Automatic annotation (TrEMBL), chains A, B:
<keyword id="KW-0805">Transcription regulation</keyword>
<dbReference type="InterPro" id="IPR046335">
    <property type="entry name" value="LacI/GalR-like_sensor"/>
</dbReference>
<protein>
    <submittedName>
        <fullName>LacI family transcriptional regulator</fullName>
    </submittedName>
</protein>
<keyword id="KW-0804">Transcription</keyword>
<feature type="domain" description="HTH lacI-type">
    <location>
        <begin position="10"/>
        <end position="64"/>
    </location>
</feature>
<dbReference type="InterPro" id="IPR000843">
    <property type="entry name" value="HTH_LacI"/>
</dbReference>
<dbReference type="Pfam" id="PF00356">
    <property type="entry name" value="LacI"/>
</dbReference>
<dbReference type="InterPro" id="IPR028082">
    <property type="entry name" value="Peripla_BP_I"/>
</dbReference>
<keyword id="KW-0238">DNA-binding</keyword>
<dbReference type="InterPro" id="IPR010982">
    <property type="entry name" value="Lambda_DNA-bd_dom_sf"/>
</dbReference>
<dbReference type="Pfam" id="PF13377">
    <property type="entry name" value="Peripla_BP_3"/>
</dbReference>
Length: 351, 351
DNA sequence: CGTTCAACGTATACCGTTCTACATTATCGA
DNA sequence: TCGATAATGTAGAACGGTATACGTTGAACG
């Protein structure tokens, strides 16, 4: 009982001593490595349980793995990301891996710092959600740490895996739906980007929008406007659009949060939705289904995206070299914000 | 140039060699420890910059600090938490500390696992946001790792600091406001808890509600109903309340998200808000200000809470022993969801 | 009955820091 | 000029794991 020092930490050595085996044997059990008899394993596990031993991640990190995965989110306030996290957590539930989140606040400089920080902390793998950093930086990162990207279209990438929803199709569905209920002057409210880049989901959605408009014979109505992430700028832009002489018949927003702001501005201006203007969002977050919003949106199961990303990452950590690129299929959820007139047939309410 | 091994990692030794000093000297510079001349510091820093040296957290963790702080969130989908994170990030901006988030999904078992995981990873400090774990477990954690709790009322705690908003006052403001515009039958929609415990913010709000009702002479109208975190249960309960014979004149919800669900149900039932029923939320998240919601709420500056918590944590890591307990003051933001009749004077819209 | 070889264990170098204990100079007052 | 003291720098032992390189068995085989 009375050991010399007080509050002695339980290390692999303590366990070895208690079980009457070597340190290496304990380590083998821990890593479920080759060359351990059932008897020995049992003995060691008994000792570990008895002593309440927990391996120290820092020490493991010095030579092997840390069993920690880094998740890079640009902004936790977007409820879509919480779906992704739920999927990641579900996938890692029964594994030894622990996901830890870093928030980049949508700034590419912070993004890089954060990734460096994760690298310094010897993370075994990275899940990057809609990163904004340069392609070259991304490659650098991916060569050092197994990485999976969500919301980054680069099917030719060899250094990392990607998991995406088909954003071109998603935007396509929206335009077809709006055109189907008779709208022609459909504006796409997109995200302000430093440069148009095919890897970005917003660019993909712009492509889907433009293509679909052409396919519907509405090419001459094609109009893309862009605002940054802030509610403020989206509102200014929305106000401008809604008060202009030829007010759009429908505004399709790149993400739900922006659509909700547009809905707010329309309401303030005394416009009826969808009577005066139809509004559509993207991501089908929980707010869409609330009756005061009843926002048509595109469902892209964030949960599934997260789950698959985590699965791919584990595979990659375990040694897979060949890149995989998953593309899931979106689904339109029509609600009353986009139906033509008072023929409004709202989708079934939740609960 | 051509060293033996390829892609040699830049360690403290590489730097020492390059600068022509000892390893210990470099370490001293890193830690800005005592006994370094300006000349030496300059030399070392030049080498570090030249070689792009970054200290390995795992190695530091073996001996000293990891410069990593753990943030425990129950659920990232609540936008209030993103405000808290923004505050934490702001406070740590210019420091060496890196915050990493773990999500417990509101389950106290996961909560404990997560804290163990953070402990295994040698986090220097913990910020726990509205934890659900038992007091004893909390004490155990706090004795091992410097901890600050947000949204946990325990002004007598000696092992950790707390940062809170005055929830009793917040609920008080709401009741006074509602009573002021003539409501009497005010129901409080609270959170289902395993047991009533004064440390919980919801209990505090219940107390504030009950007290204020009594103070307003409305004791006989006092009614508290409780639902769990899910939208489903909140909706069921809301439907029940709104369809009952004596429908409440006002429903005060413990958090915005629930209030928005209640608003949704009310809208579905064809009730006018605030004409038929007033609705009030808590946290003043971004959704409150949207015109379709225009939800009266209590602002408790999550940003400030996060900022203060991070500040206190750093102090504690640096050695402060005496516990500090901050209580901030909430502010009511009245919007049209709670005004008596068509005299509705909506608050100024954003932007 | 020797040889081979898989199965099981062990000893120990090593990972990249921190930090104590100590060595070597300057600085300076008497 | 001589300690005494402060200032600066170094050597090297930890920290707690991992994983390589071996040593020892015992069973199977020819």
């Amino acid at each position: 009982m009375a050991t010399k020092k007080k509050t002695e930490r339980v290390t692999i050595r303590t366990v070895a001593e208690d079980a009457g085996v070597s340190v290496a044997a304990v380590s083998k059990v821990l890593r479920s490595a080759y060359g351990v008899s059932d008897a020995l394993r049992a003995k060691v596990q008994a000792s570990m349980a008895k002593l309440g031993y927990r391996p120290l991640a820092a020490a493991r990190g010095m030579r092997g793995q840390t069993y920690t995965l880094g998740v890079l989110l640009s902004d936790i306030s977007n409820p879509f990301f919480s779906d992704i996290m739920a999927g990641i957590n579900a996938a890692l539930e029964r594994t030894e891996y622990q996901p830890l989140i870093g928030v980049s606040q949508s700034a590419s400089s912070i993004e890089l710092e954060l990734i460096d920080a994760m690298q310094d902390r010897q993370m075994d793998g990275l899940i990057l959600v809609a990163p904004r950093m340069k392609a070259a930086d991304l490659d650098t990162v991916a060569t050092r740490i197994p990485s999976v990207l969500i919301g980054h279209h680069l099917p030719g990438a060899t250094l990392f895996d990607t998991v995406n929803d088909n954003d071109v199709l998603g935007a396509n569905l929206v335009v077809k739906h709006l055109a189907g209920v008779g709208h022609r002057n459909i504006v796409f409210l997109s995200l302000q980007m430093p440069a148009l880049d095919d890897v970005l989901i917003t660019t993909q959605r712009e492509i889907g929008y433009t293509t679909a408009m052409a396919e519907c014979g509405l090419a001459r109505y094609t109009q893309i406007v862009r605002a940054d992430q802030t509610a403020r700028e989206a509102r200014t832009l929305a106000r401008h659009l809604l008060q202009s002489r030829q007010r759009p018949e429908a505004i399709f927003c790149w993400t739900d949060f922006i659509a909700l702001e547009v809905l707010s501005v329309a309401t303030e201006l005394g416009l009826s939705v969808p009577g005066d203007v139809a509004i559509v969002g993207y991501d089908n977050t929980r707010y869409c289904d609330m009756a005061q919003n009843s926002l048509t949106s595109v469902d892209q199961s964030g949960q599934l995206l997260g789950l698959q990303a985590a699965r791919l990452l584990i595979e990659r950590i375990k040694g897979r070299e060949k890149a995989e690129h998953l593309v899931l299929t979106p689904r339109l959820v029509a609600r009353s914000s986009s139906l033509k007139v008072a023929t409004s047939v709202p989708g079934p309410a939740a609960a």
